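[audit] Reproducing an earlier prediction to check determinism. Same input, same settings, fresh worker. If the tokens differ from the archived copy the diff job will pick it up downstream; this log only records the rerun itself.
[audit] input (136 residues):
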Amino acid sequence: MLKEFKEFALKGSLLDIAVGFVMGAAFKSVVTSFTAGIVSPLIGLLFNSDLKDLKWIVRDGIANAEGVIEGTVAVLYGDFITNVIDFIIVAFVMFLIVKAVNKLKKEEEEEEAPAPPAGPSQEELLAEIRDLLAKK
């Protein structure tokens, strides 16, 4: 059982998945930084605030003795929009990567495909059949 697991774990496809997972996680942090540092402030210009700070306050809180507001209920739609933008960017880039890899695999398969065996053409076969029928 251990031997089978070792063979499974060391297969190229599993290692490819692991590398892709690590690269995807690193890429996600780059996209999050891009969205938070560039996209959100630019979109926030339309709303005169940072996109992540946009929220709809359903119920205001009450200030306690220390001046801290408690009990505020808010819908953080700006944070949600930022995460949707992150998802769309990551999904689009992953789509492009998968499309490029599939194209490379297809080209490799076409190169590796053996040429059809050189044999008689259809016309030569038909002529041979005609000649055999003519002999009978």
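[audit] rerun output stored. Observation attached for the diff report: The beta strands are 56-59, 62-63, 69-70, 73-75.
[audit] end
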